[in-house]
Amino acid sequence: MSFFSSLDLEPRPLLRAALTTALLCGAIALGSRAGRWLDPALLGYLLASVFACFGVAYRYWTWVERPATWMYFRDLLKRLASPRVIILLPKMGLLALDQIFLQRFIGRRSIKRWGAHALIAWGCLLGFSVTFPLVFGWIRFASDGLNQDRYQAWLFGFGTGSFPVHSFAGFLAFHVLDLAALMVITGCVLAFIRRGQDEGDMATQRFDLDILPLLVLLAVSITGILLTVSEKALQGRNFGTLAYLHELTVILMLLSLPFGKLFHIAQRPAQLGVTFYKAAGEAEGRLACKACGSLFIRANQRRDLEALFLKLGLETARHSESVHHLDLCPKCKRRLLAKAQGSRLGGAFDPFSGIPVPVDPITDPQTFRSQP
Amino acid sequence: MVSDEHGFFIDPQRCIGCRACVGACAECGTHKGRPMIHLDDMDRMDSPQTVPTVCMHCEDPICAQVCPADAIKRTDDGVVHSSQKPRCIGCENCELACPFGVPIVFSGMEQMLKCDLCYDRTSEGLKPMCATVCPSQALLYVPKHQVLGMRRSKPVREFLVGALKVKTRTAVMVPDPDIPLHLDAASLIEGGF
Questions:
Q1: Domain assignment present for B177
Q2: Å from B43 to nearest chain A CA?
């Protein structure tokens, strides 16, 4: 028994995950100027982020290796490697704005769901866009020389502009995470209300998959807000304890990223690839159902699905040399099941088979004859 | 969990096309306002026969196997659910690969929805909406032992899709249940419906 099989880990995704983590570590080392700009107070966050990167990358590469996922991933890689990528990238940017940032497709599922999800997603994006660069030492705020009233932002170890501590820019810099936390808290509360009212969700939701991630996000946001409350309203009372508590919840959230519902953050961009795949299929044309003749399946998808069936050991889903089950449209497949039952019942579905059907149209409604 | 004691039995030849199932299905909480049951005509030109189709809930669902997002799950009670909302990317693989033509992908909202046996009802011991309202019992949800005494036909849960054997939770009523029901598209194409 090999080492990997005893761990039940797949070697190729493991290697790719290690490489991805090494790339992140390299970027951290480079961006923090060999660690000089790392904040020692954020070391716990840093280690948890690196672990989360490895876990997410491992699960991502395992997921990508599934035959069905690889079908689309390979197509996207081909597109990205082609010279037409110059045209593709701006389109992809616009699509990402619609599908990843605005998430309008969720609004079409349910406006309540979109409201809650958008607040959580935007809050998390805002929070991540601030905290990860801080944790990785890419951004750091420090007093502007000996002037305690001004703060200076350091980007990758290079000094950028400074701003007064008591200014709008200062307020934003110090409270952007509070804003993110408020958005996440509001979103989570709305999500809980919706989940408590939706009969369908109540029947199908699971604590570990649907409720726990919301609780973790709430814990992170509430403990984060409490830090500001302690500083502003309680003269810093219990700040240290709250800081440890917040760090604990954030580390728990980061460690749970590869295992739970939040992994869909890594999966969702695949939707962009699928949109381009569909567009390419439409350009190639749709094939007709071999039973009813209606156009239904994109040519590229028909080809790739047959190859996928072969990989999955489903190649026997073929009716003859020329007719695969994929050549039938969904409606004909449904009628086929009924036809099969009908043939077992001795032609039960053809009650009028014995009645001759006139070749010519009936023109006289009185006599029901074709020719008056 | 849906009780293993009950089974879903389809008998298309009993369907009278009243569309009560379609109206009732839209009331289900898991897909709100969108009927997931299909009611198709066999052939409008030659016959008034209609065909109701619900999910067959395969033991090894092909829709789940071809799903690139790993979004389709079968719970321990044998129910294959609609795609998980956070994962589904609306690729349509499931819709095209399903042997029985059941899933529907709504491209605007990038999600596949399908008959999930009215999970909000059946997990509470109630009948699915369609079986509750079907006047001709073409759609029947009863204890498995009960159906044996109700009909001359018996339930079959094995199907041959071409040469591929597919086992399902939902059954179709046939006179000879020991032989898998063969979905033979070749004859369909040659002779029409």
A1: no
A2: 9
Between CA A324 and CA A291, with CA B8 as vertex, the angle to 5 degrees is: 25
Q: Which of B21, B75, B121, B164 to mutate against chain A (most A CBs within 10 Å)?
A: B164
The answer to whether residue B15 is domain-embedded is: yes
Mean pLDDT of chain A: 90
Of the two residues B91 and B189, the one the predictor is more confident about is B91
Is the pLDDT score of A75 beyond 80?
yes
Q: Looking at the complex, report in whole angstroms how far the Cα of residue A316 sits from the nearest Cα belonging to chain B.
A: 5
Of B8, B15, B22, B25, which is closest to residue B138 (Cα–Cα)? B15
Strand partners, B112: B105
Residue among A36, A25, A29, A37 at smallest CA distance from A154? A37
pTM of the model: 0.88
Cross-strand partners of B51 = B40
* Minimum CA–CA partner of B182 in chain A: A340
Amino acid, res. A314: L
In this predicted structure, the answer to whether residue B193 has a pLDDT above a threshold of 50 is no
CATH topology of domain A10-271: Fumarate Reductase Cytochrome B subunit (1.20.950)
Q: Establish if B83 touches chain A: CB-CB under 8 angstroms.
A: no
In chain A, domain spans: 10-271, 285-344
User: How many domains are there within chain B?
Assistant: 1
Joined together, the tokens standing for residue A217 give 């996000």
Asked whether residue A148 carries a pLDDT value surpassing 90, the answer given is no
User: pLDDT tens digits, residue range A198-225?
Assistant: 988 999 999 999 999 999 999 999 999 9
* B161 chain-A contacts, CB cut-off 8 A: 317, 325
SS3 state of residue A62: helix
Q: What is the dihedral of CA A329, B173, A346, B46, to 10 degrees?
A: -40
- The domain containing residue B71 runs over which residues? 6-141
Q: Which residues contact A187 (CB under 8 A, 6 or more apart)?
A: A115, A116, A117, A118, A119, A120, A121, A123
Contacts A–B by Cβ distance under 8 A: 216
Inter-helix orientation angle A85-96/A67-81, to 10°? 120
SS3 category, A298? strand
A229 Cβ contact partners less than 8 Å away, ≥ 6 residues apart:
none
Give residue A354's pLDDT.
47
Q: Is B46 on the interface with A (CB under 8 A)?
A: yes
Structure ipTM:
0.95
- Is any Cβ of chain A less than 8 angstroms from the Cβ of B181? yes
CA distance B88 to A242: 38
CA distance B183 to B58: 15
Residue predicted with more confidence, A361 or A344: A344
Q: Do B101 and A267 touch (CB under 8 A)?
A: no
Across all residues in chain B, what is the average pLDDT?
Answer: 92
The CATH number for B132's domain is 3.30.70.20
